[in-house]
Amino acid sequence: MITKNNKKTIRSWAFFDWANSAYNLVITSTIFPAYYTIITTTKEHGDKVDFFGRTFVNTSLSNYALSFAYLVMAFVLPILSSIADRRGNKKSFMKFFTYMGGAACIGLYFFKLDTLEMSIILFALAAMGYIGGVLFSNSYLPEIASEEHQDRVSAQGFSYGYIGSVILQLICFLFVLKPEWFGIADASFPPRLSFLLVGLWWIGFSQIPFSVLHDGTPQHDKVKTNIFKDGFSELSKVWTQVKEMKVLKGFLVSYFFYSMGVQTIMLAAAGFAEKTLKLGTAKLIAVILIIQLVAIPGAMLMSFLAKKTGNINVLIMVVLLWIGCCVYGYYITNEYQFYSLAAIVGLIMGGIQSLSRSTYSKYLPVDTKDTTSFFSFYDVTEKLAIVIGLFSFAYIEDLTGNIRYSIIALASFFMVGLIFLVILRKIERKEPAKL
């Protein structure tokens, strides 16, 4: 068993965010989107690409690939979390997804236009590795921290992630901006080297939490049935409990809708900026670095405000800011407007992720033993939201030929989430709640 609130354990757990956030920054947010958009935009075909005989808008294809990855994981994770709870081997699954994601990033070193199909597949596999690792990492939160410390510990994890990813990003930044310092003549080499470094960083630093976190306690009292059926029966059991808990149910409904907006913006923002503003790799990296640096105090600020005013009140404020960002994003026409938008997004990005994770953890029943199953339900909720958000974003761009309309559509998701948060606050006022 893990001793709760142990500083070494918490610090080691936080290093998993340090390790895998490099993927989130370099692959989904900066260098990969810029590199991908540039090499898939040609004089002959514009922004259209051929993928196994079918033509797509380049940014739509990458968003469809991510949407597919999240959809697959939404169905696979319940099964795996059930196995992990039963066998007590969730750290083994963390390792599997980490190595798969890291290896896929290493494989992206070979990404050029003539390897587009294989590279898109590796891009999707890297996303799956990240998604799977995060689920099993999240499930440790209620085990390593008592309820009163979960906001702080969750924020610590995100802060480690931002710091670690920024350090690697700066290293990659040197290769991309100053290739002549290293005698690099091939313009495609610095981005591809960055993908290789992400894989090595991800796998390497993950050894810190792997060396400290336990595998879990096998639950021998569970009836051994078909694992595929059992995985979804675990979700069904969790949903049965959730339905009886008005506050937790209300939060999950809200989380589902605002996650469509938050996660889609995080995954598609770089492609939007490159396509509409032509920022170029250097400026795009600088913008994302600003976001990451601002996100660190942002996560801590949200944790502080939650103690003062309550988690739900802070989430309402943050979702309102996200709606404003969507509207502002539709109208931006120059890089300076994008910089100001990036600063606001950075401030609220880490905060809403960190606070959402700790809010859910706090709402769980005190005697919960199947934390992996509960966090699997949380992750499936998020993944299905991402699938809908990314697919909508890509489909609207394909349909209209204007990526700005996709941004406005995201605002509607935030509005629905906001409505449910307001309803949740009223429920909390009528009935005793944890927060």
TrEMBL record:
UniProt keyword annotation of Transmembrane helix present: yes
One GO term describing the cellular component: endomembrane system
Keywords: Membrane, Transmembrane, Transmembrane helix, Transport
Pfam families: ATG22
Gene3D superfamilies referenced in this protein's UniProt entry, alphabetically: MFS general substrate transporter like domains
SUPFAM superfamilies: MFS general substrate transporter
Entry's transmembrane regions: 21-41, 61-84, 96-112, 118-136, 157-177, 193-213, 251-272, 284-305, 312-332, 338-356, 377-396, 402-424
Bilayer topology: Multi-pass membrane protein
Places the protein is found: Endomembrane system
Entry annotated with the keyword GTP-binding: no
UniProt cross-references to InterPro entries, sorted A to Z: Atg22-like, ATG22/LtaA_families, MFS_trans_sf
Protein name: MFS transporter, UMF1 family
